[in-house]
């Protein structure tokens, strides 16, 4: 493992807990379910799909699944791409939008 990869892994250590993994999976599955169940209602509840929100939601859901199942990428760039900080922030924000 490279030094940079070890530093990124150390950065992710505070959220590398079972509670955050379960939260990540639950949020990911929730948004997938809402998106698949009624995409028009889901879109309306989060302010619509646009060129920014659509790729972000896809990336956040994929990232939450990677983190949630416990997969740990070896290379630093994959660790950053699938960072739980980003995915949990995006999915948390979308959850608040959806439920308000």
Explain this structure.
The protein has one domain. Helix content is 75%, strand content 0%. It contains 6 helices and no strands.
Throw out a few tags for this protein.
100 residues, mainly alpha
Q: Kindly give the count of domains.
A: 1
Runs in which pLDDT lies below 50 for 5 or more consecutive residues are: none
The outline comes out as elongated
Q: What count of helical segments does DSSP give?
A: 6
**Ends apart, CA distance between termini:** 43 Å
- Class of secondary structure makeup: mainly alpha
Largest sheet: none
Helix content: over 70%
Approximate strand percentage: under 5%
What's this, in brief?
InterPro entries: Cyd_oper_YbgE (IPR011846). By secondary structure, the protein is mainly α.
List the SSEs and their pairings.
Blueprint: H1 3-12, H2 18-37, H3 39-45, H4 53-68, H5 76-81, H6 84-99
